[in-house]
């Protein structure tokens, strides 16, 4: 059971990061015109620079949720993972809002960072949702209970 929990967490995180990285690379490449720079520099800087706190917090919450709901139905695990993803993203954006409000003398650049973080958080939220659904419903399919054997009464 511990191997399944570890596999679930690793697959969800890796798939979410891969999807978010690809989408952010496309957006960055459209804006800059440099595909290689977008894949190697722009996308990871946006993903890990702005949403690194959310990814770390979500990894911890994934671990807790996977252990707590390991014997429950797949619907509970999906709901737990998606709520924890939303909470991690909202906490991260809240931290950026607090920093922007503290540094109001910077001339409004803090709110631009908040807006960019919200956009990257939206991409991470969509990627995380896709990753959770794919891993829980397709890769690690729920176990089906075998029908009980019918006793022969003859």
Task: Tell me what the structure shows.
The chain is mainly α and 154 residues long. 81% of the residues lie in helices and 0% in strands. It has helices at residues 2-32, 35-68, 74-102, 109-139. Helix 3 (74-102) packs antiparallel against helix 4. The N and C termini lie far apart (40 Å). The mean pLDDT is 84.
Average pLDDT number: 84
Rough outline:
elongated
Computed CA radius of gyration, to the nearest angstrom: 20 Å
User: Helicity level, as a percent range?
Assistant: over 70%
> What about the largest sheet?
none
Count of helical regions: 4
Give the termini separation. Answer: 40 Å
Name the structural class. Answer: mainly alpha
Strand content: under 5%
Secondary-structure element series: HHHH
- Work out the number of β strands: 0
